[in-house]
Amino acid sequence: MAKKCFKLGMLAVVLAFGLTVAGCTTMSSVGGTVDSHGFFSSADVVSNGSDVIASYGIILGLIDTGYEGYVASVKAAESSGKVVTSVTTEYLGFYTKVTAYAR
Length: 103
Known about the structure:
This protein is of the alpha+beta class. Helices cover about 35% and strands about 40% of the residues. The chain contains two helices and six strands; from the N terminus they run αββββαββ. The protein has helices at about 1-20, 65-80, and strands spanning about 25-30, 35, 50-60, 65, 85-90, 95-100. The longest helix has 21 residues, at about 1-20.
């Protein structure tokens, strides 16, 4: 009986970890496209050689934090001729972070 409980416990731990990893998604934008990535991704290539110009967060899909500043920074970078890309990371649906990069 103890062996069966141990196996069920290990299965629960593995499933919990798997759901946590699967619940995090990353998307990037470059060249006008939106690209989805896995948890272990190469989305950071979007930011190679670029500077972070702004970021904002979304809490529970209900509240934006810092979006006005984000829009102003992106518009200023685009009007100065820079190419703007972004990386969006969602953490289990509770928090989403969007970061813009300019080159």
